[in-house]
Amino acid sequence: MADRPRRLRSRPQLRNLVRESRLDAASLLAPLFVVPGRLRREPIESLPGQARLSPDLVLQEARRLTELGVGGVVLFGVPDAKDDLGRGAADPAGPVPEALRLLRSSDLPLVLVADVCLCEYTIHGHCGILNGVEVDNDLSLPALADVGLAYAQAGADLVAPSAMMDGQVAAIRSRLDDSGLVQTGIMAYACKHASAFYAPFRDAADSTPAFGDRRSYQMDPANAREAMREMALDQAEGADVLMVKPALTSLDLLARARMRFDLPLAAYQVSGELAMLEAASERGWLERRPAALETLLAIRRAGADIIITYLAAEVASWLSEEQR
What is the CATH number of domain 22-323? Predict the structure, then answer.
């Protein structure tokens, strides 16, 4: 028998030599939830190991991530006060801009990404501005552009619009360019499904809708062709990075996107994906570390250049151990 693939599996060194997909700590982004104040740490029950942090503790965590070789952070604001228009999202004194300024002044070698949405800042929990009980797409665009501008001015390398409003990338790109911030990039949540896997995040960010759901603006998970259309639109509007979310339920879309688009691709391993892993490992049904690494390798293999994961610090530590 001439064809024996097992020849290259016989020893760990051989398997490592021919491995096609590899994880790299520098390609991981760690989500962080930012609250106002100082020395404020609020553990998140639905996301084991995660906590809401005040900007000073965000800086402390960022230093730890830097030491581990993690590539960057994605910041989500969790304000103390909300209103019907989500005005606090664009407040230069808000938790995310404050954290960005601290991180930028620290000169840490991290990519700074700021999520651009209104859901955490509105009393109704929806991602845009309401007209009656409906989210008004075009009314929301200037507000999202204001948020993107505030974060860019505070020092974000990339602003990441996640509201799934049509035209949001173009609105933000125009506002940034008109303000002289042509170097600030946009990581677009281009394919974001109306998913059942966001529940722990909504608890962490206090962003559960007060009524209804988000199916009128987030994507139907059943639609692959529409996903490609959304990505093409965001690319045309000026996105620098395209994101797929959730990651594990969108591996086919990542693979399609890798074949079609030349832009860097990001995938978000969302809170529900982590919750499943944590629950199964806690019950002894899965071995946590190899299962976590296998899921991330699948995301990488499907085509993701960047992986957003709550496991970023742990994975970076594991990878460092393997290299010793």
Answer: 3.20.20.70
**Catalytic site includes residue 192:** yes
Average pLDDT of the chain? Answer: 95
- Min mean pLDDT across 44-48, 103-107, 187-191, 272-276 is at 44-48
Out of 52, 82, 192, 193, the active site residue is 192
Is 82 a known active-site residue? no
List pLDDT tens digits, range 172-222. Answer: 999 999 999 999 999 999 999 999 999 988 888 889 998 888 999 999 999
All structural domains of the chain with their residue ranges: 22-323
3-state secondary structure the chain: CCCCHHHHHCCHHHHHHCCCCCCCHHHEEEEEEECCCCCCEEECCCCCCCEEECHHHHHHHHHHHHHHCCCEEEEEECCCCCECCCHHHHCCCCHHHHHHHHHHHHCCCCEEEEEECCCCCECCCCCCCEECCEECHHHHHHHHHHHHHHHHHHCCCEEEECCCCCCHHHHHHHHHHHCCCCCCEEEEEEEEECCHHHHHHHHHHCCCCCCCCCCCCCECCCCHHHHHHHHHHHHHHCCCEEEEECCHHHHHHHHHHHHHCCCCEEEEECHHHHHHHHHHHHCCCCCHHHHHHHHHHHHHHHCCCEEEECCHHHHHHHHHHHHC
